[in-house]
Amino acid sequence: MIASRRSAALDELFALLRLPSVSTLPEHRGDCERAVQLLMAKFTAMGLEHVQRLMVRERGLPLVYADWLHAPGAPTVLFYGHYDVQPPDPLAEWISPPFTPTLRDGNIYARGAADDKGQVFAQIESVQAWMQAEHALPVNVRFLLEGEEEVGGESVEAYIRTHHAELACDCVVVSDTAMYAPGLPSLDVGLRGMVYTEVEVQGAERDLHSGLYGGAAPNPLEALARIITGLKSGEGKILIPGFYDRVAPPAVKEKDAWRRLPFDEEAFRRDEVRSPALTGEAGFSVFERTWARPTLEVHGIPGGFTGAGAKTVIPARAAAKISMRLVPDQDPEEIAAQFTAAVQRLTPAGCTSQVRILSTAPAVLVSPDNRYVGAAVASLRRVFGAEPVFIRSGGSIPVVALCAAELGAPVVMMGFGLPDDGLHSPNEKFALSSFYGGIRALADFMLRLTERA
Amino acid sequence: MIASRRSAALDELFALLRLPSVSTLPEHRGDCERAVQLLMAKFTAMGLEHVQRLMVRERGLPLVYADWLHAPGAPTVLFYGHYDVQPPDPLAEWISPPFTPTLRDGNIYARGAADDKGQVFAQIESVQAWMQAEHALPVNVRFLLEGEEEVGGESVEAYIRTHHAELACDCVVVSDTAMYAPGLPSLDVGLRGMVYTEVEVQGAERDLHSGLYGGAAPNPLEALARIITGLKSGEGKILIPGFYDRVAPPAVKEKDAWRRLPFDEEAFRRDEVRSPALTGEAGFSVFERTWARPTLEVHGIPGGFTGAGAKTVIPARAAAKISMRLVPDQDPEEIAAQFTAAVQRLTPAGCTSQVRILSTAPAVLVSPDNRYVGAAVASLRRVFGAEPVFIRSGGSIPVVALCAAELGAPVVMMGFGLPDDGLHSPNEKFALSSFYGGIRALADFMLRLTERA
């Protein structure tokens, strides 16, 4: 039943991928709106009901809701995904343009291919497959798609907090993670949390000539360098007082399972990270460092002169975009406060600093011992022909923690990406095998829920 | 004779200031060319001869040459200046637009007003005043104006090195410096040198998602922070091995004279630098730190995500624009080599770095004991009604060292700017009193050279 839709499903996904729905850039609001309209039209055409564009807050981006609730007695599945994408820069590094989806070597190349439009479309097509074949679904289904995942997800958070009845469900399915390896289906049971900040440093009141004032005037860029090196040691240890106090290490059983995963650290460095060496805290494995240890990263340092050539300016102001990934049981609000205090303390004389917290999310750890996770394991085993593994992800999906807490439903992270998909990077891709396998696994998952209900 | 031209001179200067001749930005080549044409037309109209546009190197910006050599037996003065300006960013901070010259409170506000179009125009108008009144000059005069002062001055350097006969002169007059204070005429006898660099750091081969790879992947922005703090201590000491080895301290007599200059360090901080505190090496006065001690400054850190909002990227590459100001007797080539070695040594594992040297210039120290400096002192005393002081400048004018070395002529730095002119900053200004006083002082200076010849 799915095979007949392979080509049509791909065409429709490509139409969505062509829309540069970059939520972080205001000039793309119109493209986000077009993505909303496309998804609503798709839901309506499939036969879903209560298709709605939900505008939760002024200047926010709309949520898209749809449901089909005609399977009395069967469980209700809430599918979550997002239609917004990261900015495509640096543009010059894309082999095919980011918003011209292109098939190469069995992969779909486009910004958002894996994160998250391709995965959202696998969810949608799994439902469409049932509707097309049976004109009905084995379970009740709700879709809740958002357009602010890459910018903090304020709207979906507000909506979930205040609409428990409208979102009532037995489990939440999130497809926004990756399989551990090609052919090795995975269930993600852990996500890191996040505190994203912007540190702005002010020195003099105006830009100064480095010849005339160099040696007496404060330099905010130099101050930021001192703040950054004061926040994190060269050995990868975060130096913020209290930062590690609540860190809960992974269970021995979980660490043992990670040790059994196929992993070649040298191949990971050479083929995936592609850098001269790996970095991070001594005494922790790569799995621990990327899944179960917190980090602090600098994403950009706006300010000063960044054009071609030479300008001898001491800028009045500069900023650093710095985020921390959190692990269980770190408290985002506490970390944000500790970070702010540390930055203030590290700000050199002559400069003042201001910390803005752009977003926060706690880490998530899902129990593998529930029937929804069990059904997912069975579906993945059947479709991908291999025993699924339990892994964590170093990324953050704030809505997962929120759904678990607010809706009281287990969250099943069935993701079909691959580790080298290049999320947030040039040449982001999504394998056709992931797309079609995802559709089949999710369709199978829905059926399995009724068999065991 | 000068009074009658006050209004006309200002109009013509404004026409030059309206041209955004930003040499560092390729898109402004046409504006640089328009500045050249304007200056050539002006020289021709004034009655100067051999007016030439000199294109020294491909893709360079033209030099403008003109002369008047009909004063046999009298000395020859070579006037040097530059028609190029720094970029105007940050644009939002300008009260009036940078290329719409505006009079406010006795000042001309525009990019380039003081650096260096206003000062070049004072030179030109001093010659025009003589030509208009006497149809002749008391001395022989050459003008050599360049358009690459803000980007390294390659063309003028190449031209001076190879055209000694065409530039033969008894003294060089450079008007590109500031008076010590309003009403206190100054002769600049020292300039710092410069090594301007761009340090590019590469980590992974592509941008990475900070969630998936944070904790294992190298971060070039963090690497740059470590390089910067490794190059310079929090106390302002440069940590590059060998960096201070050749530093020649100022003579005791010179330091004593600086101590007698009117200076209020707290007022300097509050009204001029306008920062919460001054910075720099302990044990050195502000004069020493800005005139006679080398410095290292960061001007910009391009790379990563610098737009609005949040992007969780670990960039593959980032760069830092870093310059050092040099003092006598540091050797720019040696410093460049020491810097490059230090950056390589400071580059953390996981990253590689590459240093590009964009420009170099040695420091300059001029002897105050020659007749040209003596004439300048007398002219400044007469026109400004105060005893001129000998000062240094922390800035760099590479052509000054070159003229002294190549043309064997003393360089007289008669500059008419003021310390708060905001060179390279928003709201750059040039006082009308500086403009008109400069014209009068330079016209007087030419006459004085004949009286004493």
How would you explain this protein's 3D organization?
Two copies of one chain form a homodimer. Chain A is of the alpha+beta class and 453 residues long. Chain A has two domains: 3-191 and 363-451, Aminopeptidase; 193-247 and 294-361, Alpha-Beta Plaits (2-Layer Sandwich), CATH 3.30.70.360. Helix content of chain A is 36%, strand content 22%. Chain A contains 13 helices and 18 strands. In chain A, strands 1, 2, 3, 6, 7, 8, 15, 16 and 17 form a nine-stranded mixed sheet that branches. In chain A, a hairpin with a 2-residue loop joins strand 4 and strand 5 (107-109). In chain A, helix 3 crosses helix 13 (432-451) and helix 4 runs parallel beside helix 12. The mean pLDDT of chain A is 94. Chains A and B meet through strand 10, helix 5, helix 6, helix 9 and strand 11 of A and strand 10, helix 5, helix 6, helix 9 and strand 11 of B. Strand 11 (295-304) of chain A pairs antiparallel with strand 11 (295-304) of chain B.
